């Protein structure tokens, strides 16, 4: 241990080492700046989260409606009962969320920030009209794929 403390090699920090460190720092700064130039357009593209959530809701609804065996006509308009074999699926509004329940159990949120939802069935087309909490309206029609048992 004493040998290392009394070492006579005191060359210091060389010019070559400092240039190498400067080069590495310049590369990291370039990546840092590139990240912020990339991040700006991405944030502007995905700033409207309700549109993304609405499209995901539409995909979920269409997948649920693709192979149902029976569908009950929505009497009150705010809930919908589907049958897949012997399993019942209920899509309804609870507080400010449209949710899905399977076999009268569970709570799978499909869409949030909802003030009012209306389902209407016309033949094999289900129309969904949603009034959002902020006052905007969204609507979509879905094709119901009925497969008898």
UniProtKB/TrEMBL annotation:
This protein's UniProt keywords: Membrane, Transmembrane, Transmembrane helix
Bilayer-crossing regions: 20-38
Pfam families the UniProt entry points to: ComGF
Keyword Transmembrane helix applies: yes
Domain of life (superkingdom): Bacteria
InterPro entries given in the database record: ComGF
Claim: Transmembrane is one of the keywords in the record: yes
Protein name in the entry: Competence protein ComGF
UniProt organism field: Filibacter tadaridae
């Amino acid at each position: 241990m004493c040998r290392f403390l009394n070492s006579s090699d005191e060359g210091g920090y060389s010019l070559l080492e400092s240039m190498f460190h400067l080069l590495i720092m310049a590369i990291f700064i370039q990546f840092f700046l590139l990240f912020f130039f990339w991040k700006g357009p991405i944030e502007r593209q995905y700033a409207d989260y309700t549109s993304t959530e609405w499209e995901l809701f539409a995909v979920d609804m269409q997948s649920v409606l693709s192979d149902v065996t029976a569908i009950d006509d929505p009497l009150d308009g705010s809930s919908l009962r589907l049958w897949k074999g012997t399993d019942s699926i209920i899509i309804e509004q609870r507080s400010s969320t449209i949710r899905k329940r399977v076999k009268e159990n569970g709570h799978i949120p499909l869409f949030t920030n909802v003030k009012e939802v209306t389902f209407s069935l016309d033949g094999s087309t289900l129309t969904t009209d949603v009034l959002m909490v902020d006052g905007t309206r969204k609507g979509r029609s879905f094709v119901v794929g009925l497969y008898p048992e």
